[in-house]
Amino acid sequence: MKPRYITDIDKVPNIPEAEREKLKRVAQRYVFRVNDYYLGLIDWNVQGSPSSSSSFPTKGN
């Protein structure tokens, strides 16, 4: 099965709106791409989960 890549922050479910706006600003400057496999690994209930931080930039990055 071929992975499906998402390149639009608005198409990623479960991101809180405040975080989504921050990520949109980053995505305007840097290329954003995440595949459905990594999205499936993210525990959206755990802030700063390892899967999330490897897929999405944080303030310190």
Indicate the structural class.
mainly alpha
Percent strand equals 5-15%
* Low-pLDDT regions: none
H/E series: EHEHH
Report the end-to-end length measured between terminal Cα atoms.
32 Å
What labels would you give this structure?
mainly alpha, two-stranded antiparallel ribbon, single chain, 7% strand, 2 strands, 41% helix, 61 residues
Q: How does this structure look, described?
A:
The chain is mainly α and 61 residues long. It has one domain (5-55). 41% of the residues lie in helices and 7% in strands. A two-stranded antiparallel sheet has the order 1-2. It is globular. The mean pLDDT is 83.
SSE topology:
Blueprint: E1 5-6, H1 17-29, E2 34-35, H2 36-41, H3 50-55
Antiparallel strand pairs: 1-2
Give the gist of this structure.
The chain is mainly alpha-helical and 61 residues long. It has helices at residues 17-29, 36-41, 50-55, and strands spanning 5-6, 34-35. It has one domain.
